[in-house]
Amino acid sequence: MNSADPEIRARTKQYLKELIRFCGEVGGRNVVLGSAASRNIPKEIPFIEGWRMARETLRECAEYAVQYNVVLSLEPIAANLTNFINTPDDAMKMVSEVGHPNLKWMLDCFAAFNQGVDVPAAIRKYGEHLVHVHMNDENKSWPGTGKVDFPPIAKALKEIGYSGYLSIEVMDLRPDPETIAKEALKALRRFFE
Predict the structure, then answer these.
(1) CA proximity to 166, closest of 141, 123, 136, 186
(2) Whether residue 178 lies in the annotated active site
(3) Which H or E run contains 191?
(4) 95 with 129: CB under 8 angstroms?
(5) Which of 142, 143, 148, 151 is nearest to 174 (CA)?
(6) Model confidence over 58-74: pLDDT tens digits?
(7) Cβ 132 vs Cβ 106: under 8 Å
(8) Quick one: which of 4, 33, 94, 175 is 20 to 30 A from 104 by CA?
(9) Can you give the three-state secondary structure of 90-120, one letter per residue?
(10) Across the chain, how many H-helices and E-strands are there?
(11) Is 128 annotated in the active site?
(12) Which residues lie below 8 Å from residue 117, measured CB to CB, with a gap of 6+?
């Protein structure tokens, strides 16, 4: 979205539209916009120009998403991985500027913790536009294995009446996927009961 090359930006926009179409056709409702390094604003482009180009792409794609009943959700990712949309405040600035109901934000607990975000406060402040949550800990594993304090996050999600998906996004696959799935589910039940 932020390339200096207009052809790359056009291909990226078309690819994003294909993802939206595919998502809608298979019954999905949410396309998460993560992809940390690939969304960087290059050094040769002023940040404000990269932001403007991304805003226009997101607006056009949000409009396209209407026909498939799909929502695009911006994922704030820590600044050590990307220079573009690092916090819930950043994501909501873009959501507000695009001003389309098919563009929202999603929460990644790992990224938020590593950016020093007060996660429960962000949930309460921007909960109306929250559509997806990655329940991952700061150690890149399942919730409850690191330093993230998940009970206040669960409480804030309940307070705002959150009814979207909670996903387990782990980047450390030890000890094995089956154990991770079982332990993550136990942790979520403990936090939300």
Answers:
(1) 136
(2) no
(3) helix 177-192
(4) yes
(5) 142
(6) 999 999 999 999 999 99
(7) yes
(8) 4
(9) HHHHHHHHHCCCCEEEEEEHHHHHHCCCCHH
(10) 7, 5
(11) no
(12) 76, 87, 88
For residue range 95-114, what is the model confidence (pLDDT) as tens digits?
Answer: 999 999 999 999 999 999 99
User: Per the structure block, which two tokens stand in for 6?
Assistant: 């207009």
Within 10 Å of residue 27's Cβ, how many Cβ atoms? Answer: 7
Q: Which of 18, 44, 49, 75 is catalytic?
A: 75
pLDDT score of 125 more than 90: yes
What is the Cα–Cα distance from 52 to 32, expressed in whole angstroms? 20
Does residue 126 contact residue 104 with C-beta atoms inside 8 Å? no
Q: CB of 28 within 8 A of CB of 19?
A: no
Tokens of 4: 């200096």
Q: Which two tokens stand for residue 157?
A: 């999600």
Task: Describe the strand order of the beta sheet including 103-108 as a list of residue ranges.
Answer: 30-33, 71-74, 103-108, 130-134, 165-167
